[in-house]
Amino acid sequence: MRKIVSVGVCVFLVFTMFFGSEVLADRYLQFLLRGNYHLAYEMQSLRAKDLYTVENMSQEFQQLAEEYGEYLFIFSTETNKIRGFTVFIFHAQFERGFIDFNVVVDDQGRVDTFLVQPTLETGAIAEYIDTSRFDEFEITIGEDRNRLPAVITVPKEIDKYPLVILIHDSGAMDRDSTIGPNKPFRQIAWGLATQGVAVLRYDKRTFVFGERLSQTSPSIETEVIEDVINAITAASRIPSVSSIFLAGHGLGGRVAPAIAARDSRVDGIILLATPARRELQVIIDKQKYIGSLYGKETGQQTKLLTDYLQTALDGKLPPGAPVLAATAGYYYELDRMNPIEIVRELEIPVLIVQGDADFESSVQDYIMFMNALWTRLNVYFQLLPGLDHYFMPVKGEISTPDDYYEFRHVDGRLIDALFSWIYIFD
After folding, report:
1. How far is the C-alpha of 192 from the C-alpha of 190, rounded, in Å?
2. Does pTM top 0.85 for this prediction?
Protein backbone atom coordinates (compact mmCIF):
# COMPACT_ATOMS: atom_id res chain seq x y z
CA MET A 1 0.00 0.00 0.00
CA ARG A 2 1.28 3.50 -0.80
CA LYS A 3 2.00 5.99 1.96
CA ILE A 4 -0.86 8.41 2.48
CA VAL A 5 0.38 11.88 3.35
CA SER A 6 -1.92 14.79 4.08
CA VAL A 7 -0.53 18.07 5.38
CA GLY A 8 -2.19 20.65 7.52
CA VAL A 9 -4.98 19.26 9.69
CA CYS A 10 -6.01 22.25 11.82
CA VAL A 11 -8.12 22.38 14.94
CA PHE A 12 -9.15 25.14 17.23
CA LEU A 13 -6.75 26.41 19.90
CA VAL A 14 -9.47 26.52 22.52
CA PHE A 15 -10.07 22.79 22.07
CA THR A 16 -6.43 22.10 22.87
CA MET A 17 -6.46 24.42 25.87
CA PHE A 18 -9.33 22.52 27.46
CA PHE A 19 -8.67 18.94 26.38
CA GLY A 20 -4.98 18.66 25.45
CA SER A 21 -3.15 17.87 22.24
CA GLU A 22 -3.54 14.10 22.45
CA VAL A 23 -7.31 14.30 22.86
CA LEU A 24 -7.41 16.75 19.95
CA ALA A 25 -5.41 14.41 17.71
CA ASP A 26 -7.47 11.42 18.79
CA ARG A 27 -10.73 13.26 18.10
CA TYR A 28 -9.63 14.14 14.59
CA LEU A 29 -8.52 10.57 13.90
CA GLN A 30 -11.78 9.15 15.23
CA PHE A 31 -13.76 11.41 12.92
CA LEU A 32 -11.81 9.99 9.98
CA LEU A 33 -12.14 6.38 11.11
CA ARG A 34 -15.90 6.74 11.58
CA GLY A 35 -16.39 8.40 8.22
CA ASN A 36 -17.30 11.78 9.67
CA TYR A 37 -15.24 13.51 7.00
CA HIS A 38 -17.12 16.80 7.03
CA LEU A 39 -16.47 17.19 10.77
CA ALA A 40 -12.80 16.38 10.23
CA TYR A 41 -12.68 18.82 7.33
CA GLU A 42 -14.02 21.65 9.50
CA MET A 43 -11.17 21.08 11.98
CA GLN A 44 -8.58 22.00 9.34
CA SER A 45 -6.89 25.28 8.43
CA LEU A 46 -7.60 27.05 5.15
CA ARG A 47 -4.36 25.70 3.70
CA ALA A 48 -5.20 22.16 4.80
CA LYS A 49 -8.70 22.41 3.37
CA ASP A 50 -7.17 23.08 -0.05
CA LEU A 51 -4.81 20.11 0.25
CA TYR A 52 -7.04 17.58 2.00
CA THR A 53 -10.68 17.66 0.93
CA VAL A 54 -13.61 15.53 2.04
CA GLU A 55 -13.23 13.62 -1.21
CA ASN A 56 -9.53 12.95 -0.47
CA MET A 57 -10.43 11.64 2.99
CA SER A 58 -13.12 9.34 1.65
CA GLN A 59 -10.83 7.90 -1.02
CA GLU A 60 -7.94 7.29 1.39
CA PHE A 61 -10.00 5.53 4.06
CA GLN A 62 -11.94 3.52 1.51
CA GLN A 63 -8.62 2.27 0.16
CA LEU A 64 -7.49 1.50 3.70
CA ALA A 65 -10.62 -0.62 4.33
CA GLU A 66 -10.22 -2.47 1.02
CA GLU A 67 -6.63 -3.45 1.73
CA TYR A 68 -6.67 -3.94 5.51
CA GLY A 69 -10.27 -4.79 6.34
CA GLU A 70 -12.22 -3.51 9.31
CA TYR A 71 -10.59 -1.15 11.82
CA LEU A 72 -10.40 -2.87 15.22
CA PHE A 73 -8.67 -0.65 17.78
CA ILE A 74 -5.78 1.61 18.78
CA PHE A 75 -3.51 -0.53 20.94
CA SER A 76 -0.88 2.04 21.94
CA THR A 77 0.20 5.62 21.43
CA GLU A 78 3.66 7.18 21.26
CA THR A 79 4.45 10.86 21.81
CA ASN A 80 7.53 12.79 20.70
CA LYS A 81 8.44 16.47 20.53
CA ILE A 82 10.33 17.84 17.54
CA ARG A 83 11.15 21.56 17.13
CA GLY A 84 8.02 22.82 18.82
CA PHE A 85 5.74 20.17 17.32
CA THR A 86 4.17 17.25 19.19
CA VAL A 87 4.02 14.03 17.21
CA PHE A 88 1.39 11.46 18.17
CA ILE A 89 1.73 8.00 16.65
CA PHE A 90 -1.41 5.92 17.06
CA HIS A 91 -0.65 2.20 16.53
CA ALA A 92 -3.82 0.58 15.20
CA GLN A 93 -4.85 -2.95 14.39
CA PHE A 94 -7.03 -3.77 11.41
CA GLU A 95 -8.37 -7.16 10.40
CA ARG A 96 -5.49 -7.81 8.03
CA GLY A 97 -2.60 -5.87 9.45
CA PHE A 98 -1.32 -2.93 11.45
CA ILE A 99 -1.39 0.77 10.61
CA ASP A 100 0.40 3.78 12.12
CA PHE A 101 -1.54 7.03 12.17
CA ASN A 102 0.84 9.97 12.67
CA VAL A 103 -0.67 13.26 13.80
CA VAL A 104 1.61 16.27 14.27
CA VAL A 105 0.29 19.13 16.43
CA ASP A 106 2.00 22.53 16.49
CA ASP A 107 2.43 24.78 19.53
CA GLN A 108 -0.70 26.72 18.58
CA GLY A 109 -2.93 23.68 18.89
CA ARG A 110 -3.24 22.94 15.18
CA VAL A 111 -2.69 19.60 13.51
CA ASP A 112 0.04 20.31 11.03
CA THR A 113 0.60 16.92 9.40
CA PHE A 114 -1.32 13.66 9.03
CA LEU A 115 0.44 10.53 7.81
CA VAL A 116 -0.96 7.03 7.41
CA GLN A 117 1.43 4.18 6.82
CA PRO A 118 1.41 0.39 7.22
CA THR A 119 3.68 -1.16 9.82
CA LEU A 120 4.98 -4.60 10.57
CA GLU A 121 4.19 -4.21 14.25
CA THR A 122 4.37 -7.60 15.99
CA GLY A 123 2.81 -8.56 19.28
CA ALA A 124 0.25 -5.76 19.14
CA ILE A 125 -2.42 -7.98 20.59
CA ALA A 126 -1.93 -10.65 23.21
CA GLU A 127 -2.14 -14.28 22.09
CA TYR A 128 -5.00 -15.02 24.49
CA ILE A 129 -7.29 -12.45 22.82
CA ASP A 130 -9.55 -13.36 19.90
CA THR A 131 -11.48 -10.26 18.81
CA SER A 132 -13.89 -12.35 16.73
CA ARG A 133 -15.33 -13.94 19.87
CA PHE A 134 -16.85 -10.85 21.50
CA ASP A 135 -18.60 -7.55 20.85
CA GLU A 136 -18.27 -4.22 22.63
CA PHE A 137 -21.07 -1.76 23.31
CA GLU A 138 -20.88 1.81 24.58
CA ILE A 139 -23.20 2.44 27.52
CA THR A 140 -23.49 4.89 30.40
CA ILE A 141 -23.75 4.30 34.13
CA GLY A 142 -25.27 6.58 36.73
CA GLU A 143 -27.67 9.44 36.26
CA ASP A 144 -27.83 13.19 35.80
CA ARG A 145 -24.63 15.15 36.41
CA ASN A 146 -22.62 12.07 37.43
CA ARG A 147 -23.42 9.98 34.36
CA LEU A 148 -20.25 8.25 33.14
CA PRO A 149 -19.34 6.74 29.76
CA ALA A 150 -18.69 3.02 29.94
CA VAL A 151 -18.23 -0.01 27.72
CA ILE A 152 -19.42 -3.58 28.11
CA THR A 153 -17.53 -6.41 26.42
CA VAL A 154 -19.86 -9.32 25.69
CA PRO A 155 -18.96 -12.84 24.49
CA LYS A 156 -20.68 -13.91 21.29
CA GLU A 157 -23.04 -16.88 20.92
CA ILE A 158 -23.51 -17.38 24.68
CA ASP A 159 -26.98 -17.06 26.20
CA LYS A 160 -25.85 -16.71 29.83
CA TYR A 161 -22.53 -15.41 31.10
CA PRO A 162 -20.95 -14.04 34.28
CA LEU A 163 -20.00 -10.36 34.28
CA VAL A 164 -17.00 -8.70 35.92
CA ILE A 165 -16.94 -5.02 36.89
CA LEU A 166 -13.40 -3.62 36.91
CA ILE A 167 -12.66 -1.07 39.68
CA HIS A 168 -9.72 1.30 39.21
CA ASP A 169 -6.69 1.98 41.34
CA SER A 170 -6.13 5.50 42.71
CA GLY A 171 -5.91 8.49 40.39
CA ALA A 172 -7.94 9.86 37.49
CA MET A 173 -8.09 6.69 35.38
CA ASP A 174 -9.92 6.01 32.15
CA ARG A 175 -11.89 2.84 31.39
CA ASP A 176 -8.73 1.04 30.23
CA SER A 177 -6.67 2.02 33.28
CA THR A 178 -4.19 3.46 30.80
CA ILE A 179 -0.60 3.70 32.00
CA GLY A 180 1.98 4.83 29.46
CA PRO A 181 1.36 2.88 26.23
CA ASN A 182 -0.45 0.10 28.11
CA LYS A 183 -4.17 -0.48 28.67
CA PRO A 184 -4.39 -3.30 31.23
CA PHE A 185 -8.14 -3.12 31.89
CA ARG A 186 -8.88 -3.44 28.19
CA GLN A 187 -6.61 -6.47 27.90
CA ILE A 188 -8.25 -8.10 30.92
CA ALA A 189 -11.70 -7.39 29.46
CA TRP A 190 -10.84 -8.77 26.04
CA GLY A 191 -9.01 -11.77 27.48
CA LEU A 192 -11.96 -12.74 29.69
CA ALA A 193 -14.52 -12.07 26.96
CA THR A 194 -12.58 -14.37 24.64
CA GLN A 195 -13.21 -17.15 27.16
CA GLY A 196 -16.88 -16.31 27.74
CA VAL A 197 -16.94 -13.76 30.57
CA ALA A 198 -18.48 -10.32 30.05
CA VAL A 199 -16.70 -7.29 31.47
CA LEU A 200 -17.96 -3.78 32.27
CA ARG A 201 -15.46 -0.97 32.57
CA TYR A 202 -15.99 2.78 32.78
CA ASP A 203 -14.19 6.10 32.92
CA LYS A 204 -13.59 7.05 36.52
CA ARG A 205 -15.48 10.06 37.86
CA THR A 206 -12.23 11.91 38.57
CA PHE A 207 -11.21 11.33 34.94
CA VAL A 208 -14.45 12.71 33.50
CA PHE A 209 -15.25 15.43 36.04
CA GLY A 210 -11.82 16.16 37.49
CA GLU A 211 -12.07 19.96 37.32
CA ARG A 212 -15.49 20.02 38.97
CA LEU A 213 -14.51 17.56 41.69
CA SER A 214 -11.36 19.51 42.51
CA GLN A 215 -13.63 22.20 43.98
CA THR A 216 -15.09 19.77 46.55
CA SER A 217 -13.69 17.78 49.44
CA PRO A 218 -12.60 14.33 48.20
CA SER A 219 -14.41 11.26 49.46
CA ILE A 220 -13.98 7.57 48.66
CA GLU A 221 -17.78 7.34 48.58
CA THR A 222 -18.09 9.77 45.67
CA GLU A 223 -14.79 8.90 43.99
CA VAL A 224 -15.37 5.16 43.80
CA ILE A 225 -18.27 3.56 45.65
CA GLU A 226 -21.25 5.39 44.14
CA ASP A 227 -20.11 4.64 40.60
CA VAL A 228 -19.42 0.97 41.29
CA ILE A 229 -22.93 0.61 42.67
CA ASN A 230 -24.24 2.33 39.54
CA ALA A 231 -22.27 -0.18 37.46
CA ILE A 232 -23.78 -3.05 39.46
CA THR A 233 -27.23 -1.63 38.77
CA ALA A 234 -26.50 -1.47 35.04
CA ALA A 235 -25.16 -5.04 35.02
CA SER A 236 -28.12 -6.39 37.00
CA ARG A 237 -30.50 -5.14 34.29
CA ILE A 238 -28.90 -7.28 31.58
CA PRO A 239 -31.01 -10.48 31.24
CA SER A 240 -28.07 -12.60 30.04
CA VAL A 241 -25.91 -11.91 33.12
CA SER A 242 -25.83 -14.97 35.36
CA SER A 243 -23.65 -13.51 38.15
CA ILE A 244 -21.80 -10.31 39.01
CA PHE A 245 -18.21 -10.16 40.22
CA LEU A 246 -16.21 -7.13 41.31
CA ALA A 247 -12.51 -7.07 40.40
CA GLY A 248 -10.77 -4.21 42.17
CA HIS A 249 -7.21 -3.18 41.34
CA GLY A 250 -5.10 -1.60 44.08
CA LEU A 251 -7.33 0.96 45.76
CA GLY A 252 -10.28 -0.63 43.95
CA GLY A 253 -9.51 -3.92 45.67
CA ARG A 254 -9.32 -2.19 49.02
CA VAL A 255 -12.84 -0.82 48.53
CA ALA A 256 -14.45 -3.84 46.81
CA PRO A 257 -15.13 -5.79 50.05
CA ALA A 258 -16.99 -2.83 51.55
CA ILE A 259 -19.15 -2.56 48.43
CA ALA A 260 -19.88 -6.30 48.46
CA ALA A 261 -20.85 -6.10 52.14
CA ARG A 262 -23.31 -3.35 51.26
CA ASP A 263 -24.78 -4.73 48.00
CA SER A 264 -26.22 -8.25 47.93
CA ARG A 265 -26.21 -8.30 44.13
CA VAL A 266 -22.46 -8.99 44.19
CA ASP A 267 -21.74 -12.73 43.84
CA GLY A 268 -17.98 -12.61 44.39
CA ILE A 269 -15.00 -10.27 44.54
CA ILE A 270 -11.44 -10.32 43.22
CA LEU A 271 -8.65 -8.32 44.84
CA LEU A 272 -6.00 -7.54 42.21
CA ALA A 273 -2.67 -6.29 43.58
CA THR A 274 -4.45 -4.96 46.65
CA PRO A 275 -2.50 -3.68 49.67
CA ALA A 276 -3.26 -5.03 53.11
CA ARG A 277 -1.21 -2.19 54.59
CA ARG A 278 -2.88 1.15 55.24
CA GLU A 279 -2.98 3.38 52.16
CA LEU A 280 -0.65 6.05 53.53
CA GLN A 281 1.83 3.37 54.58
CA VAL A 282 1.81 2.07 51.02
CA ILE A 283 2.51 5.57 49.69
CA ILE A 284 5.33 6.15 52.20
CA ASP A 285 6.99 2.84 51.34
CA LYS A 286 6.60 3.54 47.63
CA GLN A 287 8.19 6.98 47.96
CA LYS A 288 11.15 5.54 49.82
CA TYR A 289 11.63 2.84 47.20
CA ILE A 290 11.44 5.30 44.31
CA GLY A 291 13.83 7.62 46.14
CA SER A 292 16.30 4.78 46.53
CA LEU A 293 16.22 4.17 42.78
CA TYR A 294 17.20 7.71 41.83
CA GLY A 295 19.94 8.40 44.34
CA LYS A 296 20.70 11.04 46.93
CA GLU A 297 19.40 13.99 44.90
CA THR A 298 15.84 13.17 45.91
CA GLY A 299 16.74 12.06 49.43
CA GLN A 300 15.88 15.28 51.31
CA GLN A 301 12.76 15.88 49.26
CA THR A 302 11.58 12.31 49.86
CA LYS A 303 12.23 12.62 53.59
CA LEU A 304 10.21 15.83 53.90
CA LEU A 305 7.29 14.21 52.08
CA THR A 306 7.38 10.94 54.00
CA ASP A 307 7.66 12.75 57.35
CA TYR A 308 4.51 14.72 56.52
CA LEU A 309 2.70 11.58 55.37
CA GLN A 310 3.75 9.83 58.57
CA THR A 311 2.11 12.61 60.56
CA ALA A 312 -1.13 11.91 58.72
CA LEU A 313 -0.66 8.16 59.15
CA ASP A 314 -0.37 8.71 62.90
CA GLY A 315 -3.69 10.59 62.86
CA LYS A 316 -2.10 13.88 63.94
CA LEU A 317 -3.49 16.03 61.12
CA PRO A 318 -7.01 17.52 61.12
CA PRO A 319 -9.35 15.86 58.58
CA GLY A 320 -9.29 18.89 56.30
CA ALA A 321 -5.49 19.11 56.10
CA PRO A 322 -4.16 18.63 52.55
CA VAL A 323 -2.41 15.31 51.92
CA LEU A 324 -1.16 14.80 48.38
CA ALA A 325 -4.16 15.43 46.09
CA ALA A 326 -6.67 14.68 48.85
CA THR A 327 -7.08 15.39 52.57
CA ALA A 328 -6.14 13.59 55.75
CA GLY A 329 -9.84 12.81 56.20
CA TYR A 330 -9.87 10.96 52.89
CA TYR A 331 -7.20 8.57 54.17
CA TYR A 332 -8.89 8.25 57.56
CA GLU A 333 -12.02 7.18 55.67
CA LEU A 334 -10.00 4.53 53.82
CA ASP A 335 -8.52 3.25 57.09
CA ARG A 336 -12.04 2.50 58.31
CA MET A 337 -12.48 0.18 55.31
CA ASN A 338 -10.06 -2.47 56.51
CA PRO A 339 -10.23 -5.08 53.73
CA ILE A 340 -9.05 -7.93 55.94
CA GLU A 341 -11.71 -7.29 58.56
CA ILE A 342 -14.46 -6.92 56.00
CA VAL A 343 -13.45 -10.00 53.98
CA ARG A 344 -13.44 -12.01 57.19
CA GLU A 345 -17.18 -11.33 57.51
CA LEU A 346 -18.12 -12.03 53.88
CA GLU A 347 -19.78 -15.27 52.83
CA ILE A 348 -19.32 -14.83 49.08
CA PRO A 349 -16.22 -16.21 47.31
CA VAL A 350 -13.11 -14.01 47.35
CA LEU A 351 -9.99 -14.34 45.19
CA ILE A 352 -6.77 -12.51 46.12
CA VAL A 353 -4.23 -12.28 43.28
CA GLN A 354 -0.75 -10.78 43.53
CA GLY A 355 2.30 -10.44 41.29
CA ASP A 356 5.52 -11.10 43.18
CA ALA A 357 7.50 -8.36 41.35
CA ASP A 358 5.07 -5.57 42.33
CA PHE A 359 6.73 -2.69 44.21
CA GLU A 360 3.40 -1.00 45.05
CA SER A 361 1.29 -3.81 46.45
CA SER A 362 3.91 -6.27 47.55
CA VAL A 363 4.28 -9.89 48.55
CA GLN A 364 4.24 -8.53 52.10
CA ASP A 365 0.60 -7.52 51.57
CA TYR A 366 -0.21 -10.91 50.09
CA ILE A 367 1.29 -12.66 53.14
CA MET A 368 -0.70 -10.39 55.46
CA PHE A 369 -3.90 -11.45 53.70
CA MET A 370 -2.92 -15.12 53.87
CA ASN A 371 -2.00 -15.03 57.56
CA ALA A 372 -5.31 -13.38 58.44
CA LEU A 373 -7.66 -15.27 56.12
CA TRP A 374 -6.23 -18.73 55.41
CA THR A 375 -8.87 -20.41 57.58
CA ARG A 376 -11.72 -18.86 55.60
CA LEU A 377 -13.01 -21.52 53.18
CA ASN A 378 -14.46 -18.92 50.80
CA VAL A 379 -11.12 -17.09 50.31
CA TYR A 380 -8.67 -18.20 47.60
CA PHE A 381 -5.12 -17.05 46.88
CA GLN A 382 -2.98 -16.86 43.75
CA LEU A 383 0.63 -15.57 43.58
CA LEU A 384 1.97 -15.00 40.06
CA PRO A 385 5.78 -14.91 39.73
CA GLY A 386 7.54 -12.18 37.76
CA LEU A 387 4.56 -9.82 37.37
CA ASP A 388 4.26 -6.17 38.37
CA HIS A 389 1.39 -4.06 39.71
CA TYR A 390 -0.45 -4.33 36.38
CA PHE A 391 0.26 -8.06 36.06
CA MET A 392 2.74 -7.50 33.28
CA PRO A 393 6.10 -9.33 33.17
CA VAL A 394 9.27 -7.50 34.19
CA LYS A 395 12.92 -8.41 33.75
CA GLY A 396 14.11 -7.48 37.23
CA GLU A 397 13.30 -9.07 40.56
CA ILE A 398 11.19 -6.04 41.55
CA SER A 399 9.51 -3.68 39.10
CA THR A 400 10.21 0.05 38.80
CA PRO A 401 8.07 2.99 37.59
CA ASP A 402 10.01 2.92 34.30
CA ASP A 403 8.50 -0.49 33.50
CA TYR A 404 5.06 1.07 33.21
CA TYR A 405 6.11 3.02 30.12
CA GLU A 406 7.34 0.02 28.15
CA PHE A 407 4.72 -1.55 25.89
CA ARG A 408 3.79 -4.98 27.31
CA HIS A 409 0.80 -7.29 27.71
CA VAL A 410 -1.08 -8.35 30.81
CA ASP A 411 0.21 -11.86 31.39
CA GLY A 412 -2.01 -14.71 30.22
CA ARG A 413 -1.62 -16.43 33.59
CA LEU A 414 -3.78 -13.73 35.16
CA ILE A 415 -6.52 -14.22 32.56
CA ASP A 416 -6.45 -17.99 33.10
CA ALA A 417 -6.53 -17.62 36.89
CA LEU A 418 -9.49 -15.23 36.78
CA PHE A 419 -11.47 -17.29 34.28
CA SER A 420 -10.92 -20.59 36.13
CA TRP A 421 -12.06 -19.08 39.42
CA ILE A 422 -15.07 -17.26 37.92
CA TYR A 423 -16.10 -20.44 36.08
CA ILE A 424 -16.27 -22.34 39.37
CA PHE A 425 -18.45 -19.79 41.16
CA ASP A 426 -20.69 -18.61 38.33
Report:
1. 6
2. no
